[in-house]
């Protein structure tokens, strides 16, 4: 067996080995110092002090710092009014900081933990806002694309939250604004159905076009885009050679929208979309 013994080498080898050990020791010490954990400056802070600091950061729009303080409250003081308020503020901060998934997660935790909290109406309102202003709504002024042409899932989730608020808390301070937003959402979702119906018609899927246009008439009473939906139904029934149904669609269109521009311009007729950026 071969054994390595530093003491049996030459003086020069010993010096090299010694230098190597010194460097290794220095690197080891540096590694130890770099892994030393930083001291949390908020250690020992009360829930009240953490919350006051979080509010100051929120007022300055320092969302990350405020979020850190609020999460500390939830972790260190999970019971009491500060923990409840921290969840409310976390949801708000995440919404303002364009973190919708985190905002919805905070709202969900709040609703499960505090179902009878006085702030439940606000959390429903905030839940509606989180999905009410997706990129499709905010950027529509730049892209020239109305929100109804996008995936309506977020719009439906927003409507459900606002509708629950209106139904459960009709006298809430947030109810009036929620009603306006819900009205816009109903029209926008109906417009999406009309877009889909028109797409099917353009592809020759006339039965599917009729079905989607029919949804606008039956599910969204009184919406302006019903005029376009009826005209799509008229065109589709004509292609299907369903003359009786075609004539029925024309009669309903004429009764509800006399002098309709669709008879002159067809599907080139523009729809006056409701833009929420002008409302709120």
Provide keyphrases for this structure:
mainly alpha; 280 residues
Rg (C-alpha, Å): 32 Å
Q: How much helix is in the residues? A: 55-70%
Pick out the low-confidence regions.
Answer: 1-11, 134-144
Q: Any idea what the shape is?
A: elongated
**SS summary, helix count:** 14
User: What is the terminal separation in angstroms?
Assistant: 85 Å
Q: Look at the structure and give the mean pLDDT.
A: 83
**Beta-strand residue fraction:** under 5%
Biggest sheet character: none
According to DSSP, the number of beta strands is: 0
What is the string of helix and strand elements?
Answer: HHHHHHHHHHHHHH
Provide a short characterization of the protein structure.
The chain is an all-alpha fold.
Describe this structure in words.
With 280 residues, this protein is an all-alpha fold. Helices cover 69% and strands 0% of the residues. Helix 3 runs antiparallel to helix 4.
Describe the SSE topology:
Layout: H1 11-34, H2 47-59, H3 63-76, H4 81-96, H5 100-113, H6 120-132, H7 135-138, H8 140-143, H9 153-168, H10 175-202, H11 206-219, H12 226-239, H13 243-256, H14 262-265
Helix pairs in contact: 2-3, 2-4, 3-4, 4-5, 4-6, 5-6, 6-9, 9-10, 10-11, 10-12, 11-12, 12-13
């Amino acid at each position: 067996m071969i054994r390595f013994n530093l003491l049996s080498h030459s003086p020069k080898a010993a010096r090299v080995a010694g230098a190597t050990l010194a460097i290794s020791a220095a690197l080891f010490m540096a590694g130890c110092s770099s892994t030393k954990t930083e001291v949390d400056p908020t250690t020992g802070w009360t829930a009240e002090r953490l919350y006051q600091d979080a509010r100051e950061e929120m007022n300055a729009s320092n969302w990350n710092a405020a979020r850190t303080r609020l999460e500390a409250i939830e972790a260190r003081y999970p019971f009491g009014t500060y923990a409840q308020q921290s969840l409310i503020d976390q949801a708000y901060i995440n919404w303002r900081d364009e973190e919708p998934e985190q905002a919805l997660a905070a709202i969900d935790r709040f609703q499960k933990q505090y179902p009878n909290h006085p702030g439940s109406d606000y959390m429903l309102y905030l839940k509606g806002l989180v999905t009410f202003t997706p990129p499709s709504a905010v950027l529509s002024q730049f892209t020239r694309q109305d929100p109804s042409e996008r995936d309506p899932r977020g719009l439906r989730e927003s409507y459900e939250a606002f509708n629950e608020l209106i139904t459960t808390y009709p006298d809430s301070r947030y109810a009036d604004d929620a009603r306006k937003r819900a009205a816009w959402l109903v029209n926008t979702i109906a417009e999406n159905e009309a877009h889909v119906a028109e797409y099917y018609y353009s592809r020759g899927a006339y039965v599917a076009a009729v079905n989607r246009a029919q949804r606008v008439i039956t599910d969204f009473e009184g919406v302006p885009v019903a005029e376009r939906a009826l005209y799509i139904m008229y065109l589709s029934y004509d292609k299907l050679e369903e003359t009786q149904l075609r004539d029925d669609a024309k009669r309903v269109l004429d009764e509800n929208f006399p002098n309709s521009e669709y008879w002159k311009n067809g599907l080139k007729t523009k729809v006056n979309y409701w833009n929420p950026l002008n409302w709120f």
